[in-house]
Amino acid sequence: MTETASGIKKESADLIEQEGGKQAGGEQVGLEQADGKQGGRFINPLNDYGFKRIFSNDGVLRSFLTDLLEPKSPISGITYLDKELPEEFADVRNVIYDIRCKTEDGSSFLVEMQCKGQEFFSDRILYYLSRSISLQRERGEKDTVVKDGEEKQEVWDYRLTPVYGIFFLNFQLKGFKPLTVRTIQLKVKETGELFTEKLTAYTLELESFRNKTACVCKMKVEYWLYN
User: Fold this and answer.
1) DSSP label at residue 178
2) How many CB atoms lie within 10 A of CB 110?
3) Are the C-beta atoms of residues 220 and 67 closer than 8 Å to each other?
4) What is the rounded CA–CA span in Å between residue 48 and residue 207?
5) Residue-wise pLDDT tens digits, 139-191
6) In the beta sheet, which residues pair with residue 201?
7) What is the dihedral of CA 121, 88, 131, 208, to 10 degrees?
8) Is residue 123 over pLDDT 90?
9) What is the helix (H) or strand (E) element at residue 127, kind and residue range?
10) How far, in Å, CA of 143 to CA of 155, rounded?
């Protein structure tokens, strides 16, 4: 692989070029690097506007998800969803994601940027994923099945579609060893068997690639982090 591989730096530069180097209002795109210095024609993903602008482009998001997940079949049919989840109960707070979408196969994706460390961020990951899981079926909803050539309504059998949470962290996750890409899944403690593929989280620690170059990248997804 070379430095022309997909990455936030390259994709943001491409977006600027495609849009003629200007925003809708005609103002020049912000080109600051994470350290505040002028570093070329790139969108800073460490602020809310820049991150959402980059990953709200379905081509960029598809490339990123492909490099991270390395799926057996191509990712297609990305649909962006409402980023705000309503309260489930009157005394339960709502959730606002950075990017929330689903793909053609029904899989859901939450893509987040967190710049500042948080004491219970691992709990926050679990809460975000759980809220997305809990919305897959509403009370009283039934599935349509075909039996003996006839359509029938049956009570939901709890079959879920996969939910993936992807968290860019501009810090090292508290309580864990530093790790550039961390995959979090539910497993059986005694055997190490994967309990389910329906709930997966990834943390991508940007600190691990601060001031690194493309030559240190070993996985495709690392090209999204090195700069």
Assistant:
1) -
2) 23
3) yes
4) 18
5) 555 666 667 777 777 677 788 999 999 999 999 998 899 999 999 999 999 99
6) 165, 184
7) -30
8) yes
9) helix 121-134
10) 6
Give me the residues paired with residue 38 across strands.
Answer: 32
52 backbone φψ class: left, alpha, beta (φ>0; ψ -120 to 50): alpha
As a dihedral over the C-alpha atoms of residue 69, residue 169, residue 21, residue 15, rounded to 10 degrees, the angle is 10
Element (H, E) at 63: helix 58-69
Tell me what pLDDT residue 152 has.
72
d(CA 65, CA 141): 31
Q: Which pTM does this prediction carry?
A: 0.80
Q: What is the largest CA-CA distance in the chain?
A: 68
pLDDT per position as a tens digit, 46-104: 889 889 999 999 999 999 999 999 998 899 899 999 988 766 655 667 789 999 999 99
Which of these, 165, 173, 45, lies nearest to 118 by C-alpha position?
173
d(CA 199, CA 184): 9
HSE-CB for 113 with a 13 A CA cutoff = 18
Strands 163-169, 181-185: pairing kind: unpaired
